[in-house]
Amino acid sequence: MKIAVLIKRVPDTASVFAINPDQKSVATDKLKFVMSPYDEHAVEEAIKLKEANGADVVVVSLGPDSAKEVMRTALAMGADEGLLVTGAGTDSLTSKGVAEALAAAVKSIGAELVFAGKQAVDDDASQVAERVAELLEMAHASVVTKFELNGGTAVVNREIEGGSYTLELPLPAVITIEKGINTPRYPTLPNIMKAKKKPIAEKSLADLGLSAEALAPGVVLESLSLPRQNRRNHIIDGDTPARVNELIRLLKEEEKAL
Amino acid sequence: MEKRLAPAPETYEQVTDLFDLDADWSSEQQAIAGRVRKMVDEHFLPIIGQHHNDETYPESILPRIRELGLLELVADDAIDPITYGLISRELDRGGSTLRSLVSVQGSLVMGAIKMFGSEAQKQQWLGPLGRLEQFGCFGLTEPDYGSNPAGMQTRAERTADGYRITGSKCWITNGVRASVAVIWAKLDGQVRGFLVETDRPGFEARHMHGKWSFRASETASLYLDGVEVPETALLPGATSLGRALQCLGQARYTIAWGACGAARGCLEETVKYLKERTQFEGKPLASHQIIQYKLAWMAAEITAMELIAKRLGELKAQGRMKPHHVALAKMNNCRKALEVARTCRELLGANGIHNEYHIGRRMVDLETVVTYEGTEHIHALTLGSTITGIKAFS
Ligand SMILES: Cc1cc2nc3c(=O)[nH]c(=O)nc-3n(C[C@H](O)[C@H](O)[C@H](O)COP(=O)(O)OP(=O)(O)OC[C@H]3O[C@@H](n4cnc5c(N)ncnc54)[C@H](O)[C@@H]3O)c2cc1C
Questions:
Q1: Could you tell me if the ipTM is greater than 0.90?
Q2: Which of chain B's ends, N or C, has fewer CB atoms near its CB within 10 Å?
Q3: Is residue B67 flagged as an active site residue?
Q4: Ligand 1 mean position, distance from CA B240 (Å)
Q5: Does the Cβ of B324 fall within 6 Å of ligand 1?
Q6: Which of A97, A189, A112 has the alpha carbon at shortest distance from B78?
Q7: Span B106-164, pLDDT tens digits
Q8: Does residue B330 lie in a domain region?
Q9: Cross-strand pairs, B273
Q10: Which CATH architecture is the domain A2-215 placed in?
């Protein structure tokens, strides 16, 4: 069986974010990039399945050449190969275009089961995997916290407010993964080295029979902004001399304004 | 909860790669260095201060090293020198004792078996040593022969079915917990290497207590009182003292890199401290000119150390690494790391001598690093003879 895992390279959310002067893009020079954390769980789930039942795990990503870094992490964890959709037209896509490209990529490798994180932590759109399922006419379940394979059927749990669903899906299927499902393994150092030798294929939109024009977004990014920092609202108690002293201390020691 | 000394700072200032050297490494090399760094930050720095204080061994780091497969990688012939160097640097950023644990097991013991062992010896030992299921030690130094191992007194004599070894070794890292010791001894006047199981009758290892430095590393004296070993204990390729020095060359390579990590660790902790600590009108210490001058010089020295380590790695990768290259790197980097540690110690004021900070431990541990595996003087003499063509010692 072939399992595809959709993974995305995203900025580490612990990074300090800044917006470029054009107000349409995030300054990337100081950012640290990682695999979107939910995707790590998706990779782990695929590898567990591979270890239990035997399978070929292909990690699929769309992005610039640097996306290979997170693909290597997945390969070091135990995935077998990678497929990167990259090149002209791939940098300006919205969820719809990304989904069309990834659907074509998944189709090209003939995967019967597709895992993905429940959302990517950069744009939080939660759209791509579900769209891939629709495009490929596969069954899908999202935000899954437990996964089992029963012959040709996937049995999954979805957490909902105050309870949980158990669903059965026929394969082929697309499953998006929630964090609690497993603990992603750390790659061992020898496996990081071995991952270097595992293949990562590259395909352009044209290779997948798509065109940048056809995938061009209908949605246009108007502007980006950082959340406004809340005011401190620090109220100083006490009589007036004490309040003045405290105010001076705060300005001096905490704010370093004096 | 028991109070732990010297907790790891929550964040480190990344102030030690001003030349952007790390960006040159491949993504695998960076990933491996990052994994080791994470292990050090999460599992070693929080516990090592207490172990140093109590003179105990940081047992809890062993499963972490196993989990990473660190020694398996280090012992893999496929590992490139830069990767091994970066691992050593990151380990030593935690502590020279941690890097030493890996250098001794990986380069000295497994290195000797790989380079000079028989197929059977490799089969028997490399697996368990690589998985850290068993420890090895490397016994060269003797009470009366440190810088001059050629004078060693330990003797092997032939018996009907093997050898009988008599003598004593001292300052032997991991000697107490080792299952196997690489023992260098003279057989018919010629230095040879033997693999001696430490449970053989007549073999005794005693923990040397009372060190000021390397307190969290176990150092032992070994006593071999007519220890009988079979023919198969001889390392067939270990035919001279030069072979022992070849093992040391590999370990010294890791020390040259490790020193960079130790210095980095000192400077990172110090910059963080100096930015937080205020003196005179509430100004952070880091804002004073003399202090910035010292920080600038330390950053420049660390950059130079790293460039030397990098060049040494390139020479090693090309198979061109000569003893005088290693001597230069080991001599320079250990001395410079110690100077950085001493300066940092001073910049922390009284806190610099307290075990709530890592600087003091790093500083005293670097005193060992300057001395072992060839003292600074001996490496200088090696270089001196390369430069002048005149040997100052035989
Ligand atoms: C913590 C620790 C762990 C160690 N682990 C190991 C181990 O695992 N295995 C092992 O075999 N050994 C080990 N050693 C021993 C170490 O390698 C020796 O201490 C080192 O080689 C120096 O020998 P020495 O201490 O006898 O000093 P000495 O040789 O007595 O030197 C004393 C001083 O004299 C100087 N000196 C000596 N000869 C000359 C000369 N010709 N010209 C100028 N100056 C000279 C030296 O540079 C030094 O400053 C360890 C040491 C320490 C401290």
A1: no
A2: N
A3: no
A4: 20
A5: no
A6: A189
A7: 999 999 999 999 999 999 999 999 999 999 999 999 999 999 999 999 999 999 999 99
A8: yes
A9: none
A10: 3-Layer(aba) Sandwich (3.40)
